[in-house]
Amino acid sequence: MREGTVRTPCALSPEDLWKARSDIHLDIKLAKKERRSLRQIGVDQAEQDAHGNDILVRTTLLELPEDFVPTFFQKWVTYDQLSTRVTTRWHDEAYDRDHGCSVEIAFPAFADRVEMGYTQWIEPVDVSPDRCTLCSRTRISIKSDDTMPKWVCSAIEKVAELSMHDSLRQYPAFVVGNIVPCSIGVARPGKSRIPTNDDEQASVQKRPCFFCQCELLGFVRVACGRRVEN
What we know:
The chain has helices spanning 14-21, 24-33, 150-178, 197-205, 218-224, and strands at 2-10, 37-40, 45-48, 54-63, 84-90, 101-106, 114-125, 128-142. By secondary structure, the chain is α+β, with helices and mostly antiparallel strands. Strands 1, 2, 3, 4, 5, 6, 7 and 8 form an 8-stranded antiparallel sheet that branches. The chain starts with a strand and ends in a 6-residue tail after the last helix. Residues 182-230 have low confidence and may be disordered.
């Protein structure tokens, strides 16, 4: 298993990034940008962590279009085998390392061979209340078998880790570039805006959802031989 850490600065306050970072509409937008579809499985569930604090749980399914996998690679993997089931557990308001978001990424077709996921949290920046750092601790494991030797699995793990880290580094910029300011009470450039009661009501109706990284997580990129450009 390979483990790594990614720390990426973001031009949003910790509170604003936590709200935007958990907005499923941004995830859906990113999925569409990369020619995929994202849908929720079931409804949000409530659980408690080891200390009795409430956490929210959401499961989503990320699917690829039929023509995503080049014909040459379809003898080894098909588009439906690369669908990912993502389960995330997070605290609604806490975002420090002790209350990090846990993300489990599963390939149902390769459930016995591939393990991926990461824990994510936000750290404030002392010099500015309007900036923060998004931190991620990643892990990836691909098991070998008779069809794939151990050294090949190790090579794929390394490439997958690099690709995952690249996607995690790009995410804060995507959020800043695509966030809808009025959804979290952030002023638009050149304009002054004060949060209203409608904003508060909307935040109650639309609970923060899971932090789906809509990236093509290295293993998929390796398997299908394609890298999506931003």
